[in-house]
């Protein structure tokens, strides 16, 4: 009998003390189970040594070479640097190490080793810094082994995690195979235990790929099974909120500065039909960025309010919550409807005030972030809940929001371009309305992919757009300068822009700023007082400033295409011609090819499809397209086949098999209970 249980605290593992525990907590690792579910983000493979002449900058390589000079030790500031020159049949190269004086004796002229490290340019010549040193025998043993590389945090090294996970896997009882043999056989799945072992410490690439497939199958299986339970339970709900369209909605629609598109009208009709049917509406509005989903949320909320009920709208960021609040609050006042904003950053006192108003029905519309699903929020008569940018939430959060009422109508909105066959599975408990039409008169965004040499041209262009009264976003991946990651940062970039365009009003925005500051900046940008907004991806979701016409993205190579598409969606929202400038911080054929896809089309479906083709089935660790969904390993696009198989398998499980599965896997049972927010 093994000692360790998966529910034990990580401190039960040898070598993990209180201090390490604290650091592990930052990675959301509390229990042994969390630890063994902390999956590698990639693997380091020991490839055979290559000739010195074929080493390339920035790449990790192993060379087999002889030392041809005596070690040279130099003191540079507080660093002691040892360097030697080595050679093989193809050429020679300098290797250097910092603060490792003890190496001197191992590196005598004439010795022969395998050195492995990353090549960098130092004063114009290629050197390998801090290479690891192996004898041929040592290296041979390492070859073909894939070393896991884990997501890390301060105080946690890869070595520590590797050891801890190894120990945990050795000492914990892993008999959690919950799938019946017939399913394992039919879908050719590796056992659950082996999958976990092979994912962390793969014997070879094939086994790794099978292990991943099994674990992804599990993720999808649990998800679709939970969803089917949810759907089943919803069937029995009766609905007390029969909502009829009223004059106010017609009026609101008539007063819009535009006509609804055909697709919007269709979706609106579907919503109206649902909510007056006597059944609970469970509907997904799927529409690309800029297709005009917000107005559908607004109309539905208004309809709930004028029928005498409450409606709430949950969004993933404060910036977006505030923006929706500003618009809706203004527009609804004339119908006598009061709206409240509820976000995490509000003071305790103002939160209490809002809770009170929600509870006694003083406000009818409540707009906010996750704060809306806090325990303290009690509604008076909640008839409709809307989640915007649903891909940023889990099903559980959506259900928690609706759990605040007596089976209120549910409307969720998402821009994720999921093909219909998959959407039916992933949103199995929802009916789907497609908003597959952009408002008329929109000019397609003009795109270009450039390198950093193009910046001055881009700045001149932005300057001109500003003169014409337009505004621009510039996105940088980082907030401030970093020692480890080489990428543009918002703070320094803002200075750069101020210099290049001294007459422009430039400000920056990033997630680490105080909520109040963020709100002020966003408001000023919305009003046009700020002309150039240098920002991190905090503006990625939902933000709507139709007067902004330029989206310039620095280090575009660091973003996934889905994210780039979302960012680009911040422009092209008004009648003016808009532009997207993707600046590549690094050269590379693959990078260029990927970004070219953005150049080819403004259509989210097309982009997702092309991205998939480019990555191919072997590419396990590319930038995930659907990183927002609730899966750790599975990617709905790349693993679409596994998703369908898992869905099919879940549907086929007999009642007895299910009970058996719940017995064997408490994790599975928990997942379903969590989903439903109650009992099985
Ligand atoms: P998304 O679907 O990305 O949430 P929004 O609802 O924010 O898009 O709409 C984007 C912009 O398009 C907004 O400025 C909105 O006012 C405008 N808009 C929405 N519907 C129409 C329409 N039918 N005609 C013209 N403009 C529209
Ligand atoms: Mg939106």
Automatic annotation (TrEMBL):
Domain Helicase C-terminal: 457-613
GO MF terms, alphabetically ordered: 3'-5' DNA helicase activity; ATP binding; DNA binding; hydrolase activity
Catalytic class of the enzyme: isomerase
Organism field: Anaerocolumna chitinilytica
Pfam families, per the entry: DEAD (PF00270), Helicase_C (PF00271), RecG_dom3_C (PF19833), RecG_wedge (PF17191)
Catalysed reactions, semicolon-separated: ATP + H2O = ADP + phosphate + H(+); Couples ATP hydrolysis with the unwinding of duplex DNA by translocating in the 3'-5' direction
CDD domains: DEXHc_RecG, RecG_wedge_OBF
SUPFAM superfamilies for the chain: Nucleic acid-binding proteins, P-loop containing nucleoside triphosphate hydrolases
Domain Helicase ATP-binding: 274-435
Gene Ontology BP term (one): DNA recombination
Family: Belongs to the helicase family. RecG subfamily.
EC number(s) on file: 5.6.2.4
InterPro entries given in the database record: ATP-dep_DNA_helicase_RecG (IPR004609), DEAD/DEAH_box_helicase_dom (IPR011545), Helicase_ATP-bd (IPR014001), Helicase_C-like (IPR001650), NA-bd_OB-fold (IPR012340), P-loop_NTPase (IPR027417), RecG/Mfd (IPR047112), RecG_dom3_C (IPR045562)
Presence of the UniProt keyword Cell membrane in the record: no
PANTHER family reported in the protein's UniProt record: ATP-DEPENDENT DNA HELICASE HOMOLOG RECG, CHLOROPLASTIC
Protein name: ATP-dependent DNA helicase RecG
Keywords annotated in UniProt: ATP-binding, DNA damage, DNA recombination, DNA repair, DNA-binding, Helicase, Hydrolase, Isomerase, Nucleotide-binding
Function: Plays a critical role in recombination and DNA repair. Helps process Holliday junction intermediates to mature products by catalyzing branch migration. Has replication fork regression activity, unwinds stalled or blocked replication forks to make a HJ that can be resolved. Has a DNA unwinding activity characteristic of a DNA helicase with 3'-5' polarity.
């Amino acid at each position: 009998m093994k000692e360790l249980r998966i529910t034990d605290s990580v401190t039960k593992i040898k070598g993990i003390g209180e201090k390490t525990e604290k650091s592990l907590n930052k990675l959301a690792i509390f229990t042994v189970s969390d630890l063994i579910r902390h999956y590698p983000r990639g693997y380091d493979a020991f490839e055979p040594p290559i000739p010195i002449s074929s080493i390339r900058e920035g790449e990790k390589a192993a060379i087999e070479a002889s030392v041809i000079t005596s070690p040279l030790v130099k003191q540079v500031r507080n660093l002691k640097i040892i360097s030697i020159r080595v050679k093989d049949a193809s050429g020679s190269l300098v290797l250097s190490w910092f603060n490792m004086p003890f190496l001197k004796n191992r590196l005598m002229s004439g010795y022969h080793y395998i050195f492995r490290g990353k090549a960098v340019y130092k004063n114009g010549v290629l050197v390998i810094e801090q290479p690891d040193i192996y004898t041929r025998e040592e290296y041979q043993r390492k070859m073909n082994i894939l070393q896991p590389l884990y997501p890390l945090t301060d105080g946690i090294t890869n070595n520590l995690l590797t050891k801890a996970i190894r120990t945990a896997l050795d000492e914990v009882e892993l008999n959690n195979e919950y799938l019946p043999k017939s399913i394992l056989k039919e879908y050719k799945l590796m056992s659950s235990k082996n999958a976990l072992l092979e994912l962390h410490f793969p014997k070879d690439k094939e086994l790794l790929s099978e292990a991943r497939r099994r674990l992804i199958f599990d993720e999808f299986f649990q998800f679709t099974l939970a969803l089917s339970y949810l759907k089943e339970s919803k069937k029995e709900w009766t609905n007390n909120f029969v909502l009829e369209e009223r004059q106010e909605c017609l009026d609101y629609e008539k007063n819009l500065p535009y006509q609804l598109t055909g697709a919007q009208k269709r979706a609106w009709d579907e919503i109206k039909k649902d909510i007056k049917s006597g059944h609970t509406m469970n509907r997904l509005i799927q529409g690309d960025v800029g297709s005009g989903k917000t107005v559908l949320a607004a109309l539905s909320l208004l309809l709930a309010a004028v029928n005498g009920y409450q409606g709430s709208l949950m969004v993933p960021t404060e910036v977006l919550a505030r923006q929706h609040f500003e618009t809706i609050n203004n527009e609804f006042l004339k119908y006598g409807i009061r709206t409240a904003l509820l976000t995490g950053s509000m003071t305790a006192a103002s939160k209490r005030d809002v809770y009170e108003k929600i509870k006694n029905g003083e406000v009818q519309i409540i707009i906010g972030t996750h704060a809306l699903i806090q325990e303290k929020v009690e509604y008076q008569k909640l008839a409709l809940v809307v989640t915007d940018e649903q891909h940023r939430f889990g099903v559980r959060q959506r259900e928690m929001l609706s759990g605040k009422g007596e089976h209120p109508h549910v409307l969720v909105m998402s821009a994720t371009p999921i093909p219909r066959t998959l959407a039916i599975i992933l949103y199995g408990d929802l009916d789907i309305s497609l908003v597959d039409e952009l408002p008329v008169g929109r000019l397609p965004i003009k795109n270009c992919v450039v390198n950093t040499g193009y910046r001055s041209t881009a700045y001149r262009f932005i300057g001109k757009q500003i003169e014409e009264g337009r505004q621009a976003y510039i996105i940088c991946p980082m907030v401030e300068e970093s020692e480890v990651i080489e990428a543009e940062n918002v703070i320094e970039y803002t200075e750069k822009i101020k210099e290049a365009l001294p007459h422009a009003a430039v400000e920056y925005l990033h997630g680490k700023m105080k909520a109040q500051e963020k709100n002020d900046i966003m408001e000023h940008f919305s009003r046009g007082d700020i002309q150039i907004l240098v920002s991190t991806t905090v503006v990625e979701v939902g933000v709507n400033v139709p007067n902004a016409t330029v989206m310039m993205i620095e280090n575009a190579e660091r973003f996934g295409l889905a994210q780039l598409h979302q960012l680009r969606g911040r422009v092209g929202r008004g009648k003016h011609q808009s532009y997207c400038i993707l600046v590549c911080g690094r050269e590379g054929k693959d990078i260029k090819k990927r970004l070219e896809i953005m150049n080819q089309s403004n259509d989210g479906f097309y982009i997702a499809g092309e991205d998939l083709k480019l990555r191919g089935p072997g590419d396990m660790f590319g930038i995930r397209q659907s990183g927002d969904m609730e899966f750790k390993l599975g990617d709905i696009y790349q693993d679409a086949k596994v998703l369908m198989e898992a869905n099919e398998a879940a549907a086929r499980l007999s009642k007895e098999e299910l009970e058996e599965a719940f017995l064997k896997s408490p994790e599975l049972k928990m997942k379903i209970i969590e989903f439903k927010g109650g009992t099985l």
